[in-house]
Structures are given as C-alpha cells and as structure tokens.
Amino acid sequence: MNLNLAAGRDALLQGRHGDAAPLFAAQVEANPGDHEARYWLASALMLLDPELAEQVLGDARTLHALAVARTMGADLRELKTNVEYANNVAVQLYGQGMVAMASVAWGLAIAAGRTDTLTLANYALSLQHQGRVEEASGLYRTAAQDNAISAVHQFSVYAELFCEDGERRHAKEARAWASLYAKAPPPAPHPNEDLAGRKLRIGYVAPNFAGSQLRQFITPIIENHDAEAVEVVLYPTDAATETGWPAWVQVHPIGKLNDADAAALIRRDGIDVLNDCWGHTAGSRLGVFAHKPAPVQAAWINFFHTTGLPQMDYVFHAASEEQGALAGLFSETVWPLGPVFTPFRPASGRLPPVPTPARSAGEIIFGSFNHPAKLSPGMIAVWGAVLRGAPDSRLLLKYRYFADPVLQRVFQAQFAAHGVAPDRLVFLGHSAGEDYFKAFQVVDLMLDSWPNPGSTTTLEALSNGVPVLAMAGEEPSIAGLYTRTILQAAGLSDLCTTSPEGFVARALELVEDVAELDRLRARVRPAFEAGPICDEAGFTRGLERAYAEMFERWAARDERPLVAASASGGAR
Q1: Per-residue pLDDT averaged across 106-122, rounded?
Q2: Are 358 and 445 in contact (CB under 8 A)?
Q3: Where are the beta strands (DSSP E) in 186-264?
Q4: What angle do CA 283, 285, 287 make, to 5 degrees?
Q5: Which residue, of 254, 282, 366, 376, has the fewest CB within 10 Å?
Q6: C-alpha to C-alpha distance for 163 and 523, rounded to whole angstroms
C-alpha cells in the first residue's frame, strides 16, 4: 500500500473522513485504473457525500470486476464490444454465484443494446443479490411495464421488501400486481358439504415441497397431520420431486396446467382449505388462487407478507397484540395461530454443541449467514459500531454470493466507512453437510439483520446452539413480530432489542463476559428444542383446528372479527 493509501486508511479508520478523502482522491487521479484506491475513496465519501460515493464505488466495482474477469480468462475487448459474449459471460458468472461480477457484464451488454426482458430481469436479480435493492426494484418495474409479464412484476413485488419503507411499498405493489394479473371471473358457488361425517380436505400449493426451502417448515406439518381427520393434497410443479411423504398424502402436479385448468383440478378435488406456501417468489402460482378454486384460501410459510389478492381469505401469523396496527399491510385477514408462525425441523446431521469459541480462540467472532440483500446500510452502520466497541473481534459473513471477490470488497468498503478495517471481515461461501454445521461452531454471537431479519438462518443458528441477537424495532412491523416470536419461543426474549443503540449496547454487554456468554450458549439449543417451534404435533393439531374453524366460518358465512389465539394453540 503506497503512502497516500496508508495515510488515508489510518485517517479513515480513526473517523477522520475529511482528512482521508483528499489522500485517496490524489491516488485515484495519479492512477485512474487503481480500483483499490477508488474503493477507499468511496469509503471516505459515504458519510460525506453519499451520491458521489455511489459513483466512485460503481467505478471501483467495474474496474475490479474486469480485472478479475481477465484472470479468469475473459476477453475484455470482446466483453466490451460483443453483446452476446458479454451476456454469456454474465450468465456463467451468475451461475457461479459471482453476482457482482455478473452485474458488470450484464451492464455492458445492456449498454450495448441488449435490452430484452430476460436480460433486464437477470441484471436486476444480480443487483438484488448483492444488496443494490433500489436499483433492482426500478429495473423490475421498467421491465414489467414495458412487457406486462406477471412473473417479472412479481420480482418487483418481492424486491420492495428490501427497500426503504419496504413493508408499506411491498403491500402497495402486491395489490398492484393482483389488480393486473389476478383477475378472474367470479367463481361458481362451491359445493363443499359441511364436515359432519367426513374429513376436511386440505391443499398445499408450491413449486416444490420436498426439495426446497419449504422442507424444514412443511415436513413437520405433513408428517403430523391426522389422517383420521384430514385429507391432504400437494400441488407441486412435478410429482417426481415429492418423494418420502406418508402414503396417504396425495400429490397432484399442476406444472403443465395453466392457472384456470389448475384451479379446475383443485375444485374437482373438493379442497376445503387451499394454502399458498410460496408467495411472490419465483415459481409462484398465485394466479391459480385468483380463480378461487377452494372456499377458503390462506397464505403463509415461505412468505409472511400480503399476497395482495382479494381472493385470498387469510394469512397465518403468530398471535400478537401488534396485529391490529399491522392490518393495513394485508389484503387478507390475519389469522393468529398461537405462539409461533410455523414449526421448524432442524436439519439432520447437526454436530454436538460446543462451548463458546472465544474461550479458546481468544477473540470474538460475530456472524451473519443472511442473504446480502438483507444487510442494509443502516444495519451495517450498527454492526460497525459493535465491531468498533469490541476491537478484538471479527465478523463472519457467510452466504454463497460471498464467494464473489468483488462483492467481498464492496462490503469491506461499506464497513470501512464506519471505522472497520477490511481484514476484520471474514467471508465464506456455500457449504454443505458437516462443513456447514462446522461454520456455526466458530461463531460466538450471531447478529441478525434489520429491517429484513433472518428466518431459516436464525432458526438454524438457534438449533445449532448459537445465540442470535436481533432487533425488532420500536414501531410495530411484520418483520419485528416474526423476529420477536422466534426468540420468545426459544426462551431468549432478552436477545431481542428495539433500537440501534440498544442493539449495540446489548451486543457489547454479551461479549464482554465470555463466561456469561458461554452460560447463555449452553441453554440455547435445549430451550429451542423444548419450545413451541419444535412441537410439531402440537402445532399441527392447532393448525387443523384453525382450518376447521375457517371452513366452518365459511359454511356459516360468519364474518365476526377474529380474536388473537392464546399462547397454547389455535385461533379462538
């Protein structure tokens, strides 16, 4: 590192951004192709001139991506002049999880005139996956408006959640999507008979149940359904993906059917309560629900926000006094299930719990295994304060996209703006099996993201015995409710803070006394496993009661408002 960069780095990490910026700017002027100097300049400018910092960071990202692409064998001349070549390189990089590098290649292809819907959507996805959510959201909207493709518009609906004021924006966009793509003729009256002397028929819709992110949430329910009381039908894309379910569970694939035909099949099956388990994510079949094939329709599991569809009757949530304040964010009626939103079955192959790693390592390792899109600028500022307050600590960021060296350097630049040296960040990409579980054994304290908290990542951490510090926020929010219920269910309410200041103070308090942190760690996994999240049978019995009550309300046309469930089970 030359003298300008070294002096600038020292000034920046001491919080003297105004002193650091000119030193980095001088290095950029002396060597315009030096992406490292541009990263440092961007860091210095982030708190001084955010708009200029974005421009400088973009230049650094491009120069860095091209330099790495050259070492990987890419022809830079072709990349800059051949549209098809640039697109092919982008596709290959994206397939390897190199999302920041892929976005640079797609940007070159688009600048050269390749502006078809697929390219724009892929480019937006690559932006979203590296946390550039506002840019991604705008691109999705542009692509959807130009071509009126429902699936592209759905990407926009989902992306809104990661933006500023995301829950309100998502609710608005979900309703807009429904008004455009979820129109269907009013359904014929449903002939479903009352429940006297027969089983309740329940349907679940998702592209894939057994081999998707649903597996750890839906398996406890399907395997614990009471075959004497209910009949269950799964509606995946392809039946071949659905193996290992109880023999009495039916599988009726709908991947080759359009929405109207799929709805007709479900109606013929006589489903009483139909569940969407996928929401506004890729592969969604919400268009089927627009035809109202079942008298009662509900949404949950993979997506705990609104679908926006007026044809959707309910959305499931954990019981909370906050639900009244959140009602405007749903087009559905919120049905409180009890203390938790879903059950969760920990992944098989977990390793035995270990003591707090800091006891032997001599340093604190904070961790986050969340998607980069969830690591908002505000959250990075808060985590930066935590790391500054614990100078002998490091932060492990693990996600498959963190295999991208450009994305790594961008996050280092963002943390450097808050006084955290790049070498204090550790990156891990995708891992599986024992290697995946070993990653939990090096983390002393997980830091949850905000305003988009972890879900599977939080549950996996707790099930592997790692404490998770979260922030639910001072104002009621869907995400805050979800986060709080997870920690309450694990007996860890004291790890749920309500403000950035409280988060920083609690994090530093927890790591100050390693012996106390170790005592906390010792109770995390046992408490999680003994709590309602792992009570598979109890949750499923409560869910079945809710299904039956929903159907009976429909049969009686009962429009009375719901009362939040007690902590013991289903809706009352």
Answers
A1: 93
A2: no
A3: 200-205, 230-235, 250-251
A4: 135
A5: 282
A6: 35
Residue 206: is its pLDDT beyond 80?
Answer: yes
Task: Indicate if 158 and 216 belong to the same structural domain.
Answer: no
Looking at the structure, do residues 161 and 229 belong to the same domain, yes or no? no
Confidence (pLDDT) at 145: 75
Nearest to 44 by CA among 30, 61, 29, 23: 23
Strands, sheet with 200-205, edge to edge from the N-terminal-most edge strand: 250-251, 230-235, 200-205, 273-276, 296-299, 314-317, 333-336
Give 3-28 pLDDT, tens digit per residue. 788 999 999 999 999 999 999 999 99
Would you call the peptide bond into 451 cis, given omega within 30 degrees of 0 as the criterion? Answer: yes
pTM above 0.85, yes or no: yes
Look at residue 195 and tell me if it is in a domain: no
Q: Model confidence over 532-564: pLDDT tens digits?
A: 999 999 999 999 999 999 999 999 985 555 544
Cα(149)–Cα(532) distance, rounded to whole angstroms?
41
Kindly state whether residues 317 and 368 are assigned to the same domain. Answer: no
Judge if 372 and 419 occupy the same domain. yes
Residues of the domain holding 262:
200-336
Q: What is the CATH number of the domain that holds 241?
A: 3.40.50.11380
Q: Is residue 538 part of a domain?
A: no
pLDDT band at 569 (very low <50, low <70, confident <90, very high): very low
Say if 266 falls within a structural domain. yes
> For residues 550 and 555, what is the distance between their CA atoms, to the nearest angstrom?
9
In this structure, the answer to whether residues 133 and 11 fall within a common structural domain is yes
Note whether 286 and 372 are same-domain residues.
no
Report which secondary-structure segment, H or E, holds 294. Answer: none
Q: How deeply is 303 buried, as exposed, middle or buried, from its count of CB atoms within 10 A (0-12, 13-18, 19+)?
A: buried
Last residue of a domain, one of 305, 336, 367: 336
pLDDT band at 1 (very low <50, low <70, confident <90, very high): low
Task: Give the domain CATH number at 145.
Answer: 1.25.40.10
Question: Do 19 and 110 belong together in one domain?
Answer: yes
- Rounded to 10°, the helix 150-160/133-147 angle is 160
Q: Where are the alpha helices (DSSP H) in 319-467?
A: 323-326, 358-361, 377-389, 405-416, 433-440, 456-463
> Where in 200-313 does DSSP place strands (E)?
200-205, 230-235, 250-251, 273-276, 296-299
Q: Give the C-alpha distances (Å, rounded to integers) separating 313 from 324, 438, 501.
A: 17, 43, 39
Over residues 459-497, the pLDDT tens digits come to 999 999 999 999 998 888 999 999 999 999 999 999 999
Q: Over the stretch 256-309, which tens digit does the pLDDT of each residue have?
A: 999 999 999 999 999 999 999 999 998 999 999 999 999 999 999 988 899 999
Residue 41 confidence (pLDDT) above 50: yes
Shared domain for 21 and 66, answered yes or no, is yes
Which CATH number belongs to the domain containing residue 381 in this structure? 3.40.50.2000
What is the domain count for the chain?
A: 3
Task: At 445, give phi and psi (nearest 5°).
Answer: -150, 125
